[in-house]
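Extended Data, panel c. Modelled sequence:
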Amino acid sequence: MSQTKPRSPSTPHRQSQGGKDFRKRVQRSSKHPAATTAPQAASKPRLGNPAAKPCITLKAGREKSLQRRHPWIFSGAIECVDGTPASGDTVAVRDFSGDFLAWAAYNADSQITARVWSWREKDVIDANFFRSRIADALAARKALGLERDSNGMRMIHGESDGLPGLIVDRYGDVLVMQLGSAGPEHWRDTLADILQELCAPVCIYERSDSDGRELEGLPVRSGVLRGALPDKVEVTEHGIRFAVDVAAGQKTGFYLDQRDNRALTGTLAAGRDVLNCFCYTGGFSLYALRGGAKSVLSIDSSQEALQLAQTNVQLNALDAAKAEWQCADVFDALRKLRDQNRKFDLIVLDPPKFAPTAAFAEKASRAYKDINLLGFKLLRPGGLLFTYSCSGGISDDLFQKIIAGAALDAGVDAQIVKKLHAAADHPVLLTFPEGAYLKGLVLRVVG
């Protein structure tokens, strides 16, 4: 997935700087509908007593979302700010009557002015607090037995692990840390020390280099935080080896969230002609090849990504003769395949993020419909379409409606075989539905 994915403030990713570099998430040109501008931030709240302890007081009636345990506080909900908190400082959050609601990380430069650390007034936000939260997140992954399938895993998943703005991914003995908001930025060294203590990696590499950090008023930064980065980093999942570029690859180097969905693709690929669009470093392609696919055509806009994908084929001693790699704009490539009357038995559409928020849903819907319409036209009767959206601004219901419209326009009937989401190391807090960004459908074209 190395074409455009504009990123939301809560999911930090690499800054956009060019259309063919797989190391960077870039915005599409205008011919492919996508978000190009972020909503304007609300006006800043009134300043209160500068001599008081740092505290946010909400406007009357604006405490309801916090009472439902949603961890974000937008600037428009704030009546006043007491004290002189700096970016990342911990502040008390109180309702209009003065009752305590939460402890939160403050950032006057963000539309999301505060992100909740804790709902308990007795908590102290310090190193021990973060050590406990991180230990809980690590224990949750261990309890699920996820290490049986992979040595690559999301160890900390931001708000859903009670650590807003913090992402930590593991690739073997290397940890990659992303700081997407002012709170974890303030505690950067403390967090790195705790991760080193609890996980003992050979390296902690920082990838705080996202567009979202600019919205937070934070500088872009990446590099080694602890230890030394090995010359080669690999991850093995379900027995397949992948080379990972943690310093320059997309996200933190790889798409850990699609682990289980890649495995499912492999179980259904035998004897099929497979098309993998936005293939990045070949995740779905390798599973299809190992699963006995007759042929696999993989398309991505980045030559660098495709080169790494071919390296991954060699790492796993898969049949390279069955694999074809095409560097092209996926929208254009799909149209050419349609015009050539090419047909496939299994198609994967795993495009970049078209809608970081609901404000961009209309334009994003057109882009999703376009590629899925073309996908349906390229499938043989009985063929399978694996289609995904990682856009936080597109709900599950809206995504299904978009795909239904694409099937209708393509003149095909399709059945939903399975609904897909991120792997279990990407948990979703019930009170934070924004964490459920990845959604997918497996559809069968009725003959």
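The mean pLDDT is 89. This feature is highlighted in the accompanying rendering.
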